[in-house]
Amino acid sequence: MKASITTVCMVALMGCPLVAQEATVTAAPAAEPGMSVVSRSYLEISRSILQTLRELTSTLDAVQDKSDADASAQQVLAIADKMQKLQAEAETIPMLTPEQEAEVKANINEQEVKETVHNFLVSVVQMAQVNCYESEALNNALSLMLGKHITTVEN
Questions:
Q1: How far is CA 114 from CA 21, 41, 89, 118, in A?
Q2: DSSP state, residue 23
Q3: Residue 94: helix, strand or coil by DSSP?
Q4: How far apart are CA 69 and CA 137, in angstroms?
Q5: DSSP characters for the chain?
Q6: pLDDT for 1
Q7: Percentage of the chain surpassing pLDDT 70?
Q8: Within 10 Å of residue 98's Cβ, how many Cβ atoms?
Q9: Which SS3 state, helix, strand or coil, does residue 77 take?
Q10: pLDDT at position 147
Q11: Among 38, 43, 67, 90, fewest CB within 10 Å belongs to which?
Q12: pLDDT score recorded for residue 27
C-alpha cells in the first residue's frame, strides 16, 4: 500500500499514520543518521507540506481587498500545483512500519505542526468570512487547493 499526502499530513499532525504561519521557519532537527529511507521520505514530505502551508498562509494573510485577492490567485494556483506534486511523491512511499513511525515522530515538532495548521485554517476561514473579497479568481484557486468551494461563513 502506498502513502498518500493525507497519510503524510496525518503523520505530521498527529505523529502516527492513522491520523494525518507566517512565523519564522524553525530549523527542523536533522534526521537521525540511522533513519530508514522510508522514514526520511515521510519526514521530508511532511516538512515540505508544512512549508507549503506556511507559504499559502502568508499569501492569504497579505490579501486586504479584491485587487490583492485577484492578484494572489496565481500564487494560490502555484501552491496548489506544489501540493499536487507532493501528493504524487507521497504516493510512491510505502506505508510506515511501527519502527519507522517512531523514527518520524521523534523528528517532528508537533507544536510547530499544530501552529502551522491552525494559522492556515484561520486564514482560510478569514477568506471565507469576507467571501474572498468577491474575487472569483481567488475563490476558484482556493477551491482547487482545498477540493471544495469557499463560501461565506455566517457569524
A1: 10, 21, 23, 6
A2: S
A3: strand
A4: 8
A5: -B--HHHHHHHHHHSSTT----SPPPPPPPPPTT--HHHHHHHHHHHHHHHHHHHHHHHHHT--SHHHHHHHHHHHHHHHHHHHHHHHHHTTSBPPPHHHHHHHHHT--HHHHHHHHHHHHHHHHHHHHTGGGG-HHHHHHHHHHHTS---PPP-
A6: 38
A7: 74
A8: 8
A9: helix
A10: 77
A11: 67
A12: 41
How much is the CA Rg of the chain, to the nearest whole Å? 16
CB neighbourhood size of 49 (10 A): 25
CB atoms within 10 A of CB 44: 16
Q: Is 116 helix (H, G, I), strand (E, B) or coil?
A: helix
Query: What residue type is assigned to position 46 of the chain?
Result: S
Reported pTM: 0.74
Neighbouring-strand partners of residue 9: none
- Cell numbers describing residue 130: 469576507
CA–CA distance, 53 with 152 (Å, rounded to integer): 22
Residue 68's identity, in one-letter code, is D
Enumerate the domain spans of the chain. Answer: 5-19+34-146
Question: Is residue 127's pLDDT more than 70?
Answer: yes
The C-alpha cell of 154 is what? 455566517
Q: Quick check: 68 and 62 in contact, CB under 8 A? A: yes
